[in-house]
Amino acid sequence: MKMRELIGTAEVPGGDPLRLFRRGDDFIIAVGGNELMNSRMSGSEEALAVMTCDRLAGRKAAHLLIGGYGMGFTLRAALAALGRDAKITVAELVPGIIDWARGPMADLAAGCLDDPRVALVMGDVAAAIADGRARYDAILLDVDNGPDALTREANDRIYSPAGLAVAKAALTRGGILAIWSAAPDDRFRRRLVTAGFQVDEVGVRARSNGKGARHTIWFARAG
Predict the structure, then answer these.
(1) pLDDT by residue for the chain (223 residues), tens digit each?
(2) Which residues, 6+ apart, have CB-to-CB distance to 192 below 8 Å?
């Protein structure tokens, strides 16, 4: 078995540092003893984009906000699904994540950050949401571990009732708040409904071949 090689560390504002490992051709991002992302498991992150874009079918010049970049699976899938008139804003809190995308993981990134439809914003996605009243047709959140925050307690405010109200205000009429989670969360689903969203909960596999752990995506449509 090939050993993991530590190739980078990135500081997280208000949280524990991230570590980037390489094992053969695979990359792993971990925090503490927990594996956050693995380049072999892109299925649910890609589904976050594809299923959102399917729900936006027919919208011209759609504007998506993605937070955060991760390994770029969601961004690349969104670019493939959207037309040339689309715009995607990517909010990434951790500069080291982008350094890795342009450095050791450049082949995996495949130039997605340089696509003319992409605007990269370095900072907390919560700030981008708060500044975007009725700006986005969809907000795609793959932040931390979902509502059960793993790396930053500050992420909790995105998923709080107040945070959901701010997200709803940032969406266009009929816009979609799409949230990735490592696991189901009935309380959070009820919170989305209480916030006034029409909610569709979908289970997706971690791997693009339909195998691996089952993750959860909520597609919450604003009225």
Answers:
(1) 678 999 999 999 888 899 999 999 999 999 988 888 999 999 999 999 999 999 998 899 999 999 999 999 999 999 999 999 999 999 999 999 999 999 999 999 999 999 999 999 999 999 999 998 899 999 999 876 667 653 445 566 788 899 999 999 999 999 999 999 988 999 999 999 999 999 999 999 988 887 888 999 999 999 7
(2) 164, 177, 199, 218, 220
Contact between 195 and 160 (Cβ < 8 Å)? no
Cβ atoms 119, 82 nearer than 8 A? no
CA–centroid distance for 174 within its chain: 20
SS (H, E, C) 106-161: HHHHCCHHHCCCEEEEECCHHHHHHCCCCCEEEEEECCECECCCCCCHHHHHHHCH
Q: In what order do the strands lie in the sheet with 18-23?
A: 5-10, 18-23, 26-31, 34-38
SS3 sequence of 30-53: EECCEEEEECCCCHHHHHHHHHHH
93: helix, strand or coil: coil
Please state whether the predicted TM-score (pTM) of the whole model is above 0.70: yes
Q: How far apart are the first and last CA of the chain?
A: 52
